[in-house]
TrEMBL record:
GO BP field: regulation of DNA-templated transcription
Residue ranges of domain Response regulatory in the record: 4-120
Annotated GO CC locations: cytosol; protein-DNA complex
Annotated region of DNA binding: 133-229
Organism: Rehaibacterium terrae
InterPro entries: CheY-like_superfamily, OmpR/PhoB-type_DNA-bd, Response_regulator, Sig_transdc_resp-reg_receiver, WalR-like, WH-like_DNA-bd_sf
Name of the protein: Two-component system OmpR family response regulator
Modified residues (4-aspartylphosphate): 53
OmpR/PhoB-type domain location: 133-229
Record key words, sorted: DNA-binding, Phosphoprotein, Transcription, Transcription regulation, Two-component regulatory system
GO molecular function terms attached to this record: phosphorelay response regulator activity; transcription cis-regulatory region binding
Length: 229
């Protein structure tokens, strides 16, 4: 039985392009152009994963509201935000809305499908019994690769998929500087330097919410970032 993906996007051309790309990978895809239309369909049956545009028709933040409604119904449903507005990233990535990841609308279709597959892999790994897997442990950190899980001092850090792979890139080689280009390649995103900087700031804030003394990520000016050796 194929997995179902719902795309809530008010621009038909974008919605159709995403749907066609995902169908090529065997997903069953349903498209919706507005929050009320999607809400009605979801009241009957939830999909396996939802991709939501933030601005929906005459609702500039309709996607946020839909995400809240979905998260109230399911704590495990994978939710991926699409945004054309960089200012939205702080709201999304704070995970106050419960989104699992977020992508810019100018993402390539292969990147989109890779991110959807990564979310499904993470959900499957979290549901599966604990098995032998690659684990990085350093001071208070534990990073479980297959489960895409990060723990700091015994508490889960609610990282998005993008943030997880950036932390993974840093932790694999403690003390080694990773350039912004290397972090983008690891996280399968193509963004500008300012957005990478914003990602790192948000990652730090999530660790600091658990441990206010957290200072494991160093900024090496002009070069990139490193996890303390």
């Amino acid at each position: 039985m194929s997995r179902t993906v719902a795309i809530v996007e008010d621009e038909p051309a974008i919605r159709d392009n995403y749907a066609e790309a995902l169908r090529r990978y065997g997903f069953e895809v349903h498209g919706f152009g507005s929050r009320p239309e999607a809400k009605l369909a979801f009241s009957l049956r939830l999909p396996d994963l939802v991709i939501i545009d933030i601005g929906l028709g005459d609702e500039p933040e309709g996607g946020f509201e839909l995400c809240r409604e979905l998260r109230a119904r399911s704590s495990t449903l994978p939710i991926l935000f699409l945004t054309a507005r960089d200012s939205d990233l702080d709201v999304i990535s704070g995970l106050r809305l419960g989104a699992d990841d977020y992508l810019s609308k100018d993402i390539s279709l292969p990147q989109l499908t890779a991110r959807v597959q990564a979310l499904f892999r993470r959900m499957e790994a979290l549901r599966a019994p604990a098995a032998r897997e690659q684990v990085f442990a350093l001071r208070g950190l534990r990073l479980e690769v297959e489960r895409m899980r990060v723990v700091w001092n015994g508490s889960d850090v609610p990282l998005t998929v993008t943030e997880f792979w950036m932390v993974h890139a840093l932790v694999r080689h403690p003390g080694h500087v990773r350039s912004r280009e290397q972090l983008m390649r690891e996280a399968q995103v193509v963004v500008d330097d300012a957005t990478i900087t914003s990602h790192i700031k948000r990652i730090r804030r999530k660790f600091q919410a658990i441990d206010p003394t957290f200072d494991e990520i160093d900024t090496v000016h002009g070069a990139g970032y490193r996890w303390r050796p």
